[in-house]
Amino acid sequence: MRFRFLLVSVGSTLAFSALIANLYNLQIDDGTRYAAKAASQDRERGLLEAKRGAIYFTDRNGNRIPAVMNRDYPVVFAVPKEIEDPDAAAQIISKILGLEFIEVKQKLSKHGDSYELLALKVADITAKEVRDANISGIYVTEENFRFYPFQSLAAHVLGFMSPSADDEHPKGRYGIELAFDNELSGISGIADGDRTVAPKHGEDIFLTIDRNIQAHAEDILAKLVEDHGASGGTVIIENPKTGAILTLANAPTFDPNHYGDAPVAYFLNPAVQAIYEPGSVMKTITMAAGIDSGKITPNTTYVDTGSVTLNGKKISNAEGKVYGKITMKEVIEHSVNTGAAFAAKQIGSDLFYEYLEAFGFSRVTRIGLPGEVRGQLASLDERRREVSLATASFGQGIAVTPLQLIAAIGALANDGILMRPRIIASDPEEKVGRPVSPEAAHEVVQMMVNAVDKAKVAAIPSYTVAGKTGTAQVPDFKRGGYTGAFIHTYVGFAPASAPRFIILVKLDKPTNAPLAAQTVVPAFRELAQFLLNYYAIPPDNLPSHEQNP
Question: For 28-58, what is the HEC assignment?
């Protein structure tokens, strides 16, 4: 019995020792090899890669709507060393993928090569055709790519991802994808021996852009450009009280899912990356500066003779009109160039320039989109000529971005307080400054309301609407002076008594309409009507018998 017990004990000890030794070999001697193998498998399965964060729109109810997400797409690749007849394989696969036969054949003929990429993000039906062809050495796998479910919607805001000539790893290009590339990318995991550090996935970004408003604005803009044979256009909608950008749309646009199909010029965001002479919209800023400085009042009179000559340059009113004795109110109502020049002269060049700076035209808005440029006030700042001051008063000779313009006029809608435009929902509201007093802002808003009521084109029954048109000539940068092309702008807000939104509509070089009243003003009215209904904003201008039944 003792012998049997001793035999069992010795056997158990030996077996246990062998197990310990095996574990030692697995964990210590071979640990590095197995850890490396596991790390390799992790990499192959993408377990160490950080998932890129999503980008969301936000609607009126605070709902978050995915604007950019990650999605698996079919990828077609070849292993040339497994292909017996490159010519025959290339004939079949080039037709399925819509590629040049010669290009495909060159890839498939690289004997000994173990990998050649043929096509990324192919359609599911195309992937099925490749599989059904059953060509030895041709494979379909799936890889993760960015997906833009609304296609071209807000493309200039979102941007896209692509590799560069120097780096095959895709990175954010343009828009939010570029501006927040680091935050969206996250940090990849690390496999170091038997230690694995999990990846830190990218952050999600939430925008102030409202998908419903953006879509409606883009439809209106696309129709506006088409109907008037324009080269492009921009629509921006902002909440003037908070600075939140609800819509930022440009035409022409592109589909980030297929950015390679669009010209590179389409990727630039004209709302923040291009400046232009805004025209008579600037008269509202001129009047605000004049009233705030005490140099004029809405009732200050001026005798218009139809033109004025300064520094040898003649300035005339649109269509050569002569208005005689008029007030500053009427200067805005009839958009009188010489009247705006008179107001600017009362202010003076130095003080006028200071007001333009206070309204933010000499600096970027800091919205957070890449490539933002500031306005150009050099002609007014450097020369200090009378004619430069006069033309600047009605928006020629100086240049601004559309975003700067809507932010500045938004200050008039916001009791004189200039807000920083913001497109990231989590960004706090920020007051940039107060370029004019509440009293001056209210005076100019009333002048803008009167202009809308007189012209009637932008008027909406039962609501007070404030707005101003601008029809500006396009400069001739080669020969100097101006071309025969125009840019139309309208900026307006409603209800004027307590503005909930401000809209800028800009149309570049329309070919069949000489005045903004025929193009951008009707587009503004359609958008404003939509927003009043969308937000269920109560009327502020009911007839007296409806207010007191």
Answer: HHCHHHHHHHHHHHHHHCCCCCCCCCCEEEE
* Backbone phi, psi, residue 363, to 5°: -140, 165
pLDDT tens column, 124-160: 999 999 999 999 999 998 888 899 999 999 999 999 9
Tokens of 361: 């035209």
CA–CA distance from 355 to each of 20, 226, 291, 360, 362 (Å)?
Answer: 83, 37, 12, 9, 10
CB 502 within 8 A of CB 240: yes
| % the chain with pLDDT above 90 | 71
Q: For residue 136, what are the contacts with CB-CB under 8 A and spacing of at least 6?
A: 82, 83, 84, 89
Residue 12 has pLDDT above 60, yes or no: no
The packing angle between helices 283-293 and 402-413, to 10°, is 40
pTM: 0.86
What digits encode the pLDDT tens for the residues 305-339?
999 999 888 999 988 999 999 999 999 999 999 99
Count of CB atoms within 10 A of residue 165's CB?
5
Kindly tell me the burial class for residue 139, based on how many C-beta atoms sit within 10 Å of its own C-beta (0-12, 13-18, 19 or more): middle
DSSP assignment of 267-320: GS-HHHH--B--GGGGHHHHHHHHHHHTS--TT-EEEE-SEEEETTEEEE-GGG
- pLDDT > 50? residue 426: yes
431 three-state secondary structure: strand
pLDDT: which is higher, 394 or 195? 394
Distance CA 133, CA 95 (A): 11
Instruction: Mention every residue, 6+ apart, whose C-beta is less than 8 A from residue 124.
Output: 74
Longest CA span, the chain: 132
Residues 6+ apart with CB under 8 A from 298: 287, 291, 327, 328, 329, 443, 446, 447
Choose the weakest-confidence range: 15-29, 318-332, 397-411, 456-470. Answer: 15-29
Check: CB of residue 240 under 8 Å from CB of residue 145. Answer: no
